[in-house]
Amino acid sequence: MRLTVLFLLGLTSLSRAADSDTFSPTHQLSGVGVSRDDLSDELLQARTDLMIQSQTFSIMREQMAVSGARRITTDRKLQALFRQASERSGIPVDEIEAIAYLESWGDPKAESPSGPRGIMQISHGTAREMGLRIVRSVRYRIVKEKVQVRGKNRKLVTRTVRHKIPYTVFGRDERLIPERAIPAAANYLARLERKFGGRDWAIFAYHCGEGCVSEMQELTRQARGIPKDQLTVARMFFSCSPAWNRELYQAVQNQMQRDYSPTYWFRVMRAEQLLAEYRRDPDAFENLSEQYKVHFSSTDTLPRRASHRLSVWLTRDDLRFHTDDEIRATIGTDLVTVVDRPEFFGFQVKLEPDPISDVAYLNLAAPSAVGTLAYIAFETRRLWQELSPKNEQFRPLQVTSLFEPEDYAVRTLRSEALAHGTGLVFDIDYAGLPPAEYECLRFVLDDLGWGGYLGFVEEGADRFHIGCSPSSRDFFAGVFQEAVEQLSQNVESHE
Hints:
By secondary structure, the protein is α+β, with helices and mostly antiparallel strands. It has 21 helices and 13 strands. The protein has a 5-stranded mixed β-sheet. It has a two-stranded antiparallel ribbon with strand order 1-2. Strands 3-4 form a two-stranded antiparallel sheet.
């Protein structure tokens, strides 16, 4: 799997960085963290493109990704319906297809546990707005139950009692009829576009609801730094942070926790691209799908659905350290020692070794992993400084796990333990972080994740398991080299 990542570099002075008492990499990712407060049109477009590409994971890891693409693009009946709906509504056919792909994988009978049904996954309330008929009737089933009651002589006797239990059946549900549902959904999108002034907002509203988008649009209009003629979903998403347009940031976070709807437009754009890729080369598309399944765990006999990005990015080939001799041979190249300088780097190494083990290599990691850790701490600290929380002091991030040889990792029985045998991942314990600092850390991880630079997953109740993407390893290895140089200069300046 290849994820194309555009690294946007903001250059700072080497001499200024060397004089600092805290680590500040010379090459920085523009528009990330605190740098979101100044997004040029060019930078916004670059961040939007990266965000769209990052949606590949959430789509291609699904079991129905390939069969759904085949159904959407080759079913002649569906293709005719998509074209007709596009011609009558003005919504591009590619976008109607993409929504049907994401919502149901092209299955006209699809049902969601939360209520939406059909190829376009339309809720009952929205169906009424679209003019779709849903005829329901109530039926009853008889349930027998044995109960104990007192007879005439006051003695307990067992009797069988019958209960009528009502249930609802659909007589006719036009959400399940593609000839009705597809044009109705396209016309609904056209109405939303007229109401909200943009197709991106219409697609957002299709997932989030009209009330949700009305609120988000108003907060975007009120936000600082957003030109009045550029009120787009991408501007909304990227123009806020814990320290910048906080009210908008909190609204976005609330919607993300509810159903990830602020990312829906980006996901539809990626689905549109993926369907075009399937049309060009179905075999290549199937190969791409295989790359988004888990091939790492030695216990798996068949590839399975990936639960997070790291389970896709790491492979068995990355698990190369099994014995002490193999580890010794790579120290200084493939594995390096993580220096514990909390005030300078913004993180503190507090490893939690297995008490029955005597492992001498737990403070090692790949250079890219150390660079990723240093960069996360740098972005978290400068965002926290911009936020300026009252009654809080910055606490160095607590690193509780780095490299673990394979046999040691297996013995710990943690769900992500085996990945530590690669040296490419690390764990941060956030249990003791002050609220504002935790908020900044979580935002930075999300921001770097949406850009395709890293992946992370919560392990247990208070730990992040983190690693960078394969395409980012060279960049973060470069950050590590800068960290070594700046630390040396810092030590010399204090002698």
